[in-house]
Write a structure and sequence with these properties.
With about 250 residues, this protein is mostly helical. About 75% of the residues lie in helices and about 0% in strands. The protein contains twelve helices and no strands. The two termini are about 25 Å apart.
Length: about 250
């Protein structure tokens, strides 16, 4: 029950903060670009019969490769900064909450915002489908078959693949008072991880958490056994969370 109280406290503390608005802006960025593309360029002939599925899968690739990782880096840096900005760490750490519950509540809060990111992103794509329906009724877009399994797999792989990076960035966000350190480190590692797969094409990318988003986002880089990569991400997440908690446990008022 105390974990639920800690989580409730985190939710109330961060309600309508910059993290909430960051989530909405980041989530709707991809759908907005897709909308501009559909309005000004229309739909190519080869894609007219399956455009509905492409809205929810293919057009998510750039979001999964660029927007989603950068969003996580910014979110995990900004959200733990609440106590640093308001100088309330002493008050929080002296409260009757267990350190473990504080730590987990903050991480779970981040996961809740990530799920909100997915929801807003998919609703944005649905809005694009509605716009396309009125712009080009000949597509008969809402009578096209929808591959739910492919959509769930796309979003699920993207989420799980980035859990390792999320846990590490969360640890850094709590560890460093200077918000620039986790943001700069995260973006630099994301850039290196992207090049590792995109240009160098090194197998080391399967062990570098900042490369996992490429395998989950682009079919040409998808591994034969994605489950191994996803389990690797989960394993790294557990390691980073344990290390982060042990470090957080030592935190002084």
């Amino acid at each position: 029950m105390s974990l639920l109280l800690s989580l409730r406290s985190e939710l109330l503390k961060n309600k309508r903060t910059s993290s909430f608005y960051l989530t909405l802006v980041a989530a709707l960025f991809g759908p907005f670009l897709s909308m501009l593309d559909l309005v000004f360029d229309g739909v190519e002939k080869d894609h007219r019969t399956d455009i509905l599925n492409e809205l929810f899968t293919t057009k998510y690739m750039m979001t999964g490769a660029v927007v989603f990782p950068i969003y996580i880096i910014l979110l995990c840096a900004l959200l733990p900064q609440t106590e640093y900005r308001n100088n309330t760490w002493k008050q929080v750490l002296s409260s009757p909450q267990q350190r473990l519950h504080m730590f987990l509540a903050k991480f779970i809060n981040i996961q809740g915002l990530i799920l909100l990111f997915f929801l807003a992103n998919q609703l944005g794509m649905l809005a694009n489908a509605v716009i396309l329906f009125f712009r080009d009724p000949s597509l008969d877009i809402f009578n096209q078959p929808l591959a739910w399994s492919a959509i769930v797999a796309t979003l699920g792989n993207s989420y799980i693949a980035l859990l390792a990076m999320c846990a590490l960035q969360f640890w850094m966000g709590i560890r460093f008072k200077n918000v620039i350190i986790p943001i700069a480190t995260g973006i630099a590692c994301w850039f290196i991880g992207t090049l590792l797969v995109l240009q160098i094409k090194s197998a080391a990318g399967t062990l570098f958490p900042y490369s996992f988003h490429m395998y989950a986002s682009f079919p040409q880089f998808e591994l034969k056994d994605m489950s191994t990569l996803l389990f690797t991400s989960l394993a790294f997440m557990m390691v980073f969370l344990v290390a982060g908690y042990l470090d957080f446990k030592k935190k002084r008022m």
